[in-house]
């Protein structure tokens, strides 16, 4: 949000399309994410030259090559750390980290959690396809227990991460989720990520049709998705289902699904979403893979907390008022003596 | 008691080693003697030597901390081989350091610390102060330091622990008397340091005075010494240690370039002081980022370089190992960063607090693929400033990461240093491209004809939007390129660029004979020992020369010709022969090594002996 706003020149989608041929597999969910980004970015109010895309390694990490902005396709897992340096070096920039479940949560997990903790004002878009694509199909840290892949012929025995819970546990200040197939929703989430001052963490459920096709079938199949997705809206009761008649109710501290058409319940019994409430965010992140409960989509948590580079620059400004001087002053400070 | 008139003797130089428990304040005592000695105008060189444990059990051999100081009326290059004086605050300190004291030297001990418990901890069966073992070989002064400070501060409202802790100041006061030095500087310093605890300041000052008075009023001491001012070159001097000088060199380069200095790093012994020093300079727009690990430290620096800061990181060998993949990225992305390696004993965790030169291969070769990186090494603590400045200059001029090798001895050791003027330092040629340099787009890998540095445009520059990364780059578009011929061209370009840095190197200086029987070839922290050895041999008319290498990658262009002018080449290194292998490979000469890897500087004496053995 600290990026310089412009009104003088309206940017277009084409301004963000680079001259590089896109090389993802035809039908990959990554295309949809690229398309939404190119659609939304002209309207974010940021000068084109101030956008920077930083990625690590993986299918998703090719993303910067396709955006005609500043971009840096770095090394496996390190995008978060490199982006931190970019932003602290120049807080004017609008910095976007493009990563995946392997890149950002496995090899780069340490950088992801520490970035969230510091709350540097950068945006993470994590493409979660629950598989390793670029290395051709091994299980990832978000693959479900028992997943049969090339490296787990008898099924994986690793319990997976839930990225939203991890981000929340890392004290992330903005945690949201969207789906590659929900284009309008994704646009909205990209805008919200940008608007948040602090680190934004946007998980995108992305279909890898080559190695993990249908991983989110229950959330994308028209026949069933309404029953499986809980669209979050701040201040609104958590209703879902094709007729919005099902709701999330707290039984003690256990979330359960109720039917408000049932005489026993009314909409007043349904939990109301509050983006600033950490407890609600914890519940929402937790119910992600719970059998019998829908998957929350939208902004789970958004809270303004101190931003790293703001504090950093404030310290620099304060130091400048408290102490003037340059290297020459330090060179000659302390005990010195002169030889004639 | 009356003031005794001890005989005053002039000596050329003295080497003192202060040794005691980690909690005895030996580093501080050494520092204070150093500061006072610097102001007096002696040349000096120091070698702090501390244990890796923060607080090993009191009185144990593992907990001994030491500080060696050599001061002289001549120009000196090392902290010296064998101390003339050992101050041992307990039996363990005596046990650890006795074998290195020159025979006939002076030993000063705190007699009160030689308790049965401490003797046992140090492995003494009998008290060495009570038999003749020491007295026969050394001049032994056994002083009841603890008792003296307790008596001096008896009327003060302080705990006995606080009072006993001042015994290091008593030892210092006594040495100031012995070497004829004023106490005022130290008193002023104590008052400043303990400004918020005036009682502690007072107790320390009393201890200092008590030590001095003890020297002047007891009859045991018959000789005092003076060391005349050294004839240093004209200029204003300060005392400086290597890590501070490194930080200052980096900050000076950033200021000269007019860019913020960005430091990304992770704490590691013995490099952390670079981070600490820079963290205190926020008023100069220095941005320090203590990252979550070594990898993030360099990664953040690479990001900051991409965004146009002058970026750097400092670490030690294990940290460089973790950073090596990112170093490869900096090579591929051709971004300027300075990576400082304050070398310590390895491999693995090794000897964290001891010095070594065994990361040379790692610096020159330690990456996947053909990833040439320029490597520069500092020669002395003060030289760390110039080496850090030069590393920054070359990094931005050639668009490359640069590795600066220092070591634990240089980083923690100190020497008097002629303060440079910012005006005299060369320009840092940092230039950003502000308009695209191709037909209709920015070409990030369009190179400067002379240096082969690529064009540098930073985010925020309209019209120069571009993508870089770790995949092979197309020449000059920077687009991802898998073409076999392009890969070959880029490999050769990167190597040619780094080799071309040799054009920046001045003519190599040869000390001593320009041709002859033997050439001493050194690099990094072994400069001092090697130059001292060369001076000694020179004074004996030996037919030897000494060349010290500042840049190890690339080597200076005239090095081959120089090597050819000597019958033999000797390379002293604190490793198993790394520069020797490189020199043999590059110049096909039969270089011989002197390799002593004890976690300490090589002694001049050992070099002299080896030379004599080789040239008879
Ligand atoms: S492997 Fe999967 S994630 Fe990668 S590009 Fe192909 S479909 Fe997309």
Report on this model:
- By secondary structure, chain A is of the alpha/beta class.
- Chain A folds into two domains: 7-235 and 274-312, Rossmann fold (3-Layer(aba) Sandwich), CATH 3.40.50; 237-272, no CATH class.
- In chain A, 29% of the residues lie in helices and 19% in strands.
- Chain A is built from eleven helices and twelve strands.
- Chain A has helices at 29-40, 79-89, 101-107, 109-118, 163-169, 183-195, 217-220, 225-228, 278-286, 308-322, 327-331; strands at 51-55, 70-73, 94-100, 123-128, 174-179, 200-205, 229-231, 239-240, 246-251, 254-259, 295-302, 336-339.
- In chain A, helix 1 (29-40) crosses helix 6 and helix 3 (101-107) crosses helix 4.
- The longest helix of chain A is centred in the C-terminal third of the chain and has 15 residues, at 308-322.
- With 616 residues, chain B is of the alpha/beta class.
- Chain B folds into four domains: 3-227, Pyruvate-ferredoxin oxidoreductase, PFOR, domain III (Pyruvate-ferredoxin Oxidoreductase, domain 3), CATH 3.40.920.10; 238-424, Rossmann fold (3-Layer(aba) Sandwich); 431-504, no CATH class; 511-615, Rossmann fold (3-Layer(aba) Sandwich).
- Chain B has 20 helices and 23 strands.
- Chain B has a seven-stranded mixed sheet, sandwiched between helices. Chain B has a six-stranded mixed sheet with strand order 3-4-2-5-6-7, sandwiched between helices.
- In chain B, helix 1 (26-40) packs parallel to helix 6, helix 4 crosses helix 8 (198-217) and helix 9 packs across helix 10 (272-279).
- The longest helix of chain B is centred in the middle third of the chain and has 20 residues, at 198-217.
- The model of chain B has no long low-confidence stretch (mean pLDDT 95).
- Classes of the chains: A alpha/beta (340), B alpha/beta (616).
- Chains A and B meet through strand 1, strand 2, helix 2, helix 4 and helix 10 of A and helix 1, strand 9, helix 9, helix 11 and helix 12 of B.
- Strand 12 of chain A pairs antiparallel with strand 9 (235-241) of chain B, so a sheet runs across the interface.
- The structure holds iron/sulfur cluster.
- Iron/sulfur cluster binds next to loops of chain A.
């Amino acid at each position: 949000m600290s990026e310089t706003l412009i009104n003088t020149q309206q940017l277009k989608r084409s301004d963000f399309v680079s001259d590089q041929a896109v090389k993802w597999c035809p039908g990959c969910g990554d295309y949809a994410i690229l398309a939404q980004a190119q659609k939304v970015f002209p309207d974010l109010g940021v000068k084109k030259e101030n956008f920077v895309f930083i990625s690590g390694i993986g299918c998703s990490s090719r993303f910067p090559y396709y955006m005609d902005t500043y971009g840096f396709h770095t090394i496996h897992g390190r995008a978060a750390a490199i982006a931190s340096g970019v932003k602290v070096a120049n807080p004017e920039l609008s910095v976007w980290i493009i990563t995946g479940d392997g890149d950002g949560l496995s090899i780069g997990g340490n950088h992801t959690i520490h970035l969230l903790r510091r709350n540097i004002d950068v945006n993470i878009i994590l493409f979660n396809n629950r598989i390793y694509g670029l290395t051709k199909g091994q299980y990832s840290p978000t693959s479900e227990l028992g997943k049969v892949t090339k490296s787990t012929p008898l099924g994986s025995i690793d319990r997976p991460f839930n990225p939203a819970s991890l981000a929340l546990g890392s004290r992330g200040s903005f945690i949201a989720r969207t789906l590659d197939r929900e284009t309008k929703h994704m646009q909205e989430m990209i805008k919200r990520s940008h608007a948040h001052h602090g680190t934004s963490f946007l998980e995108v459920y992305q279909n890898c049709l080559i190695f993990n096709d249908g991983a989110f079938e229950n959330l994308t199949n028209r026949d069933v998705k309404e029953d499986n997705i809980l669209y979050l809206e701040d201040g609104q009761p958590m209703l879902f289902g094709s007729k919005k008649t099902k709701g999330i109710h707290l039984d003690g501290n256990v979330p359960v699904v109720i039917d408000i058409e049932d005489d026993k319940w009314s909409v007043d019994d349904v939990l109301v979403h509050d983006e600033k409430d950490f407890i609600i965010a914890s519940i929402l992140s937790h119910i992600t893979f719970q059998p019998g409960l829908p998957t929350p989509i939208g902004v789970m948590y958004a809270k303004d907390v101190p931003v790293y580079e703001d504090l950093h620059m404030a310290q620099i400004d304060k130091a400048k008022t408290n102490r003037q001087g340059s290297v020459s002053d330090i060179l000659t400070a302390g005990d010195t003596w002169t030889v004639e | 008691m009356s003031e005794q008139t001890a005989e005053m003797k002039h000596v050329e130089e003295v080497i003192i080693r202060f040794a005691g428990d980690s909690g005895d304040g030996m580093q501080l005592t050494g520092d204070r003697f150093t500061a006072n000695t610097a102001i007096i105008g002696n040349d000096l060189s120091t070698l702090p030597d501390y244990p890796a444990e923060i607080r090993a059990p009191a009185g144990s051999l593992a907990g001994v901390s030491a500080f060696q100081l050599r001061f002289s009326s001549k120009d000196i290059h090392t902290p010296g081989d064998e101390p003339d004086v050992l101050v041992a605050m307990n039996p363990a300190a005596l046990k650890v350091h006795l074998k290195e004291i020159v025979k006939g030297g002076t030993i000063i001990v705190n007699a009160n610390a030689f308790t049965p418990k401490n003797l046992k901890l140090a492995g003494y069966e009998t008290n060495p102060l009570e038999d003749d073992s020491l007295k026969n070989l050394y001049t032994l002064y056994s002083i009841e330091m603890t008792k003296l400070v307790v008596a001096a501060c008896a009327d003060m409202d302080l705990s006995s622990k606080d009072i006993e802790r001042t015994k290091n100041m008593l030892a210092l006061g006594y040495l100031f008397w012995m070497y004829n030095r004023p106490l005022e500087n130290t008193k002023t310093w104590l008052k400043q340091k303990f400004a918020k605890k005036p009682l502690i300041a007072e107790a320390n000052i009393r201890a200092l005075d008590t030590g001095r008075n003890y020297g002047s009023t007891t009859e045991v001491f018959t000789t005092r010494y003076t060391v005349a001012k050294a004839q240093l070159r004209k200029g204003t001097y300060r005392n400086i240690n290597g890590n501070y000088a490194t930080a200052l060199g980096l900050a000076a380069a950033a200021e000269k370039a007019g860019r913020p200095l960005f430091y990304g790093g992770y704490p590691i012994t013995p490099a952390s002081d670079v981070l600490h020093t820079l963290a205190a300079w926020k008023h100069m727009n220095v941005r320090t980022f203590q990252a979550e690990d070594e990898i993030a430290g360099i990664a953040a620096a690479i990001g900051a370089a991409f965004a146009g800061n002058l970026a750097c990181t400092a670490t030690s060998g294990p940290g460089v190992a973790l950073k090596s993949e990112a170093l490869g990225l900096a090579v591929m992305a051709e971004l300027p960063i300075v990576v400082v390696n304050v070398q310590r004993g390895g491999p693995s965790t090794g000897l964290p607090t001891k010095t070594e030169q065994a990361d040379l291969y790692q610096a020159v070769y330690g990456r996947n693929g053909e990833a040439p990186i320029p490597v520069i090494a500092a020669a002395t603590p003060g030289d760390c400033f110039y080496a850090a400045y030069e590393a920054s200059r070359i990094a931005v001029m050639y668009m490359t990461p640069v590795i600066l090798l220092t070591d634990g001895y240089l980083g923690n050791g100190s020497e008097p240093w002629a303060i440079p003027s910012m005006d005299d330092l060369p320009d840092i040629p940092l230039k950003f491209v502000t308009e695209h340099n191709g037909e209709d787009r920015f070409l990030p890998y369009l190179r400067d004809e002379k240096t082969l540095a690529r064009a540098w445009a930073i985010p925020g520059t309209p019209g120069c939007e571009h993508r870089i990364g770790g995949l092979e780059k197309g020449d000059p578009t920077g687009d991802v390129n898998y073409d076999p011929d392009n890969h070959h061209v880029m490999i050769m370009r990167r190597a040619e660029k780094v080799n071309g840095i040799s054009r920046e190197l001045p003519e190599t200086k040869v000390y001593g004979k320009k041709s002859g029987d033997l050439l001493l070839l050194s690099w990094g922290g072994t400069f001092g020992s090697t130059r001292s050895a060369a001076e000694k041999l020179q004074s004996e008319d030996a037919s030897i020369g000494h060349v010290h290498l500042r840049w190890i990658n690339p080597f200076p262009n005239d090095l081959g010709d120089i090597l050819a002018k000597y019958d033999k080449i000797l390379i002293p290194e604190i490793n198993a022969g790394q520069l020797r292998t490189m020199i043999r490979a590059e110049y096909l000469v039969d270089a011989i090594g002197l390799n002593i890897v004890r976690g300490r500087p090589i002694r001049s004496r050992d070099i002299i002996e080896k030379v004599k053995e080789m040239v008879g």
